[in-house]
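so my prof wants the structure for this chain in the C-alpha cells format not the other one, which i didnt know existed until like an hour ago. anyway here's the sequence
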Amino acid sequence: MKILIVEDNQINCFLLCDYLEYCGYCVQALSCGEGFFHAMASFEPDLILLDLKMPKVDGYSILAQLQSHPIWHEIPVIVVSALSFRTHQQKALELGARRCLTKPVAPSVLRLAIEQELNAEVTGICAQDSLNKSRLVPFASDVQVS
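here's what i got, hopefully its the right format
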C-alpha cells in the first residue's frame, strides 16, 4: 500500500516516513503543498497523510481540490496537524478528511488509523462520517491503546 505524506516540518516528515516504511508501506513525502497533484498522478497513493498549516498551499486548499476530482476524492485523507481546535478539525472533516489526529500523535494511534482507513477502502465500508466525534482525536496523550 502506498502513502503520500504532505508535511512541511522536515523532522516530522522524516519520522513519519521512517516509521511507515518500517511498517511495510511504500511512502512518498512532499515538504509543501506545491507539486501535490503531480505527486498524486505519478505516485497514485492509497492514502494521504496531510498537514493543514503549510506555506503557500495549505491543507484546506488541497482537501477542497481533492473533493472536486472525479477519482481522487475517494482516497482517504488523514489530517495530522498541530491545529487542535475542534473548528479546525471540523473544517477538515467537512472538506473530506476521514480523520484528524493532533500532533504529536502516538505511532500506534497513527498506524491503527491508517489500517482502519485502508481496510475500509478494501472492504467498501464508507468511513466518512464528518459528524462522528470518534474520528476527532484532540490529544494523542488522551488516547490509550491496549
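also thought this was worth mentioning. The longest strand covers residues 2-6.
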